[in-house]
Amino acid sequence: MFRSRSKEDQAPTEPPAEQEQELRDAEAPKGRPTPKRRDAEALRRAVVKPPANRKEAAKRARDARRAALAKQREALVSGDERHLPARDRGPARRFARDYVDAKFHVAEFFLPIAVLILVLSMVPSIATRNLALLMWLFVIVMIVFDSVLTTRRLKKALRARHPDESVKGISAYALMRTLQMRRMRLPKPQVKRGEEPR
Fold first, then answer.
1. pLDDT in tens, 35-93
2. What CA–CA distance (Å, rounded) separates 65 from 22?
3. Nearest C-alpha neighbor of 175 from the set 78, 108, 87
4. CA-to-CA distance for 87 and 176, rounded, in angstroms?
5. How far from chain centre, in Å, is Cα 198?
6. Cβ(78)–Cβ(144) below 8 Å
7. Cis peptide bond N-terminal to 51, omega within 30
8. Structure letter (DSSP) for residue 15
9. 166-195 as b/e, with b when 16 or more CB fall inside 10 Å?
């Protein structure tokens, strides 16, 4: 008659917080209206429907190519790995890009130096022309020296950082990047000078 109620009887009848959370998530708004059935079916048919003729097939292929190229251009600016061209893809190549971008290289200043040497070589003075020739020789020797040093250090860093990756062709890829001025490099540099490569 005066028996105490068991713990089960005293427990609240409301669902636990987790179940309530799950229900709320399932019923949460999608942020957009549900499309009508006829619209959804029309869209499905349009996607699955094969091209009616060769002209339409060519148009679709052209549009797809254009969209892929647009994504590729965006990726070259942002560094998004998913849409980069095949030659720029992979962790080893990203490391090589960052390694080059984190340092100064003589080859990246080749174009302005070449313009300066060209101007000096057009001066009528013999001494100035000789100076231009010496500058050519000095610049070429420095580029070769810097390229050899960069290649050796990059290979060593790649073996330490990515031992399982194939490093074939990466040295040439990195050297071609050193020949470009920093602001003209694609994909765009993702590290500042002096930063550690990722």
1. 788 877 777 766 656 777 888 888 888 988 998 888 888 888 887 888 888 889 999 99
2. 42
3. 108
4. 12
5. 13
6. no
7. no
8. P
9. eeeebbebbbebbebebeebebebebeeee
